[in-house]
Amino acid sequence: MKQECMRVRTWLYDHAWPYWAAHGVDRVHGGFVEYLDLAGRDGGAPFKRVRAQARQLYCFSQAALLGLPGAREISDNCWQFFDRHARRGDGGWARRMDRTGVIIDPTSDAYDLAFVLLAHAWRYRLTRDPVLIESAAGVITTLNSDLKAPGGLGWLADAGTSGPRQQNPHMHIMEAALEMLDASGDARFAALAHQVADLFLHHIIDRKTGVLREFFTADWKPLDSAEGHIIEPGHMLEWVWILVRAHRLLGLATLDDVQRLYAFATCHGTDAHTGLIYDQIRSTGAPLSRDSRLWPQTEALKAHIAMMETFGLDTSPQISVTVDNLFRHYLDHAPLGTWIDHRRFDGSPKVDKIPSTSLYHLQLAFTELLRAQSTPGYDTVAV
User: Which GO terms describe its molecular function (predicted)?
Assistant: First the structure.
């Protein structure tokens, strides 16, 4: 897989990071721009989502650790903007700001808080500032004070909602908790990861079928509606990688579930002709949407790597197909260093912008491949 490693390294180091450093940083107001237009210019979004700022902080903090010139300054300056403007007066975190940093939606959102926690993990890796550990612990406090679900099973998607329970924010809380634990060794983040793992192991995964649903009732039963049968194979593959990390960092007995998720997602969620991962399938395995966003392909890459490293499976053919698909369908037809974020089943683009948030998916998958293959010049200490 040397060729795939050099291909992704060149794209990430020589094109994506420099491009987003030049075009994705708001050098007038601070922070990062929300999206680019399809020509690769600032799309002029009048808002900044907290999740987008947090994801980009991860990207440039890791890039700084991996030696990108100027990345440390970007991470430092954008953290100052983030910490000053996105943090509410009560210590919690807002959902959305205007372009200048004025909060326009102060709502606590579980998905956003997960990425706030992830940003803390990578800023701590970069700076080793102990203040960040306590700030990250404050994210747990906000989760529990603003979003703890009645009955104590997990968290609400956002403050004030009584809608269905959602697995997706819990998945990212687990991911971020493991990152904070790995970075800091602090037991509070191990406890948070254990909370999510217990919910996953006892309520979220259906062990009879290997299915992982998106939406649940208040007591984490499958919804008796069309929404309750939505399966996103990209999320199943994302859980594969996260559960392998949980096994390594926490000693959790998750490997049987890893195999179930991987088998179902790759069997039913993959286009047999292209190897692309579908957006959605039904709980029966039948396709629901054959369109394909970019991010499920990156999650497939991470899952293939995890299966190779954990079980000794030869997933190198799947890795090669996935890397080729990412370039062929998403990266090669966009301004160099950017992407087409969504494609229809017929191959036509399904987008009108280039969202900054997708760099997180690409970067994490590509650095995982480089770590796994020990590409010369890659600092494995950083991940």
Answer: isomerase activity
